[in-house]
Design a protein that fits this description.
It is a single chain. The chain is of the alpha/beta class. Helix content is 28%, strand content 24%. It is built from 8 helices and 10 strands. It has a 6-stranded mixed sheet with strand order 2-1-3-4-5-10, with helices on both faces. Strands 6-9 form a two-stranded antiparallel ribbon. A two-stranded antiparallel ribbon has the order 7-8. The model has no long low-confidence stretch (mean pLDDT 94).
Length: 226
């Protein structure tokens, strides 16, 4: 089976994945709904979080059995860290194409990635797959230091009076980090709950350290390894 598997919190990775699935003629699968981990060819699309690979993606990669793999890491125009190199070195899958894609930052009101045709070289590479070497890139030395706690410190997440305790936020959260609008210490502020709340009852505000951090964009470049 060939598939594009995506981990998407605010919908940006889902859009990238569905474009690639249409171009490749593969099925698109939400990582949270994957039942089999065996594929002939797979494309994995996921968001970079605090310059790191999300835990759900790490778990998937540890179970994945695939002949040829392409990896697409979407980042919010700040820093992608070293995640593609870490995927290649940490899981030893045969990676035949990879990309860093700049898109909408989860905490900012801006346009997402729309130049999908620029990803077509990945589609072409999958037709004649061969291993690609991903170079090591710069990662902040403090990136691995309590990333979830840093996110909680920078972003306040709360429910307003429209919350009726339906529990949908608890269902969509893969970390067990929220219960009826109330986040706990597992929360990484990915905002998947905010995106999926049917009553628009969940909101977030940026605290001063996060506002200061987001003033300085570091990178806004599409990088493809084929």
């Amino acid at each position: 089976m060939n598939a594009v598997i995506y981990c998407s919190n605010t919908g940006e990775c889902a859009k990238i994945a569905k474009y690639l699935a249409d171009k490749c003629g593969y099925i698109a699968l939400d990582l949270c709904a994957v039942e089999s981990f065996v594929f002939d060819t797979a494309v994995l699309v996921f968001p970079v979080h605090c310059q790191n690979i999300p835990s759900a993606v790490k778990d998937f990669l540890s179970k994945l059995q695939v002949k040829d793999l392409a990896v697409v890491a979407a980042y919010g125009k700040m820093s992608y860290g070293n995640v593609l190199y870490e995927v290649q070195k940490g899981y030893r899958h045969k990676i035949v194409a990879a990309a860093y894609v700049p898109t909408k930052h989860a905490y900012l009101a801006e346009e997402g990635f729309e130049n999908f045709s620029k990803l077509d070289p990945i589609v072409e590479k999958l037709k004649t797959p061969a291993p690609v070497k991903i170079p090591k890139s710069r990662k902040n030395p403090f990136a691995n230091f309590m990333p979830a706690a840093r996110s909680r410190a920078g972003v306040k997440l709360y429910a307003d009076g429209n919350c009726n305790n339906c529990g949908l936020c608890s269902g969509v959260c893969g970390r067990g980090a929220i219960n009826c609008g109330k986040p706990n210490n597992k929360c990484i502020r990915c905002l998947k709950c905010v995106e999926n709340c049917p009553r628009s009852a969940l909101h977030f505000t940026l605290r001063a350290p996060m506002r200061a951090y987001l003033k300085n964009y570091e990178k806004n470049k599409l990088i493809i390894y084929i």
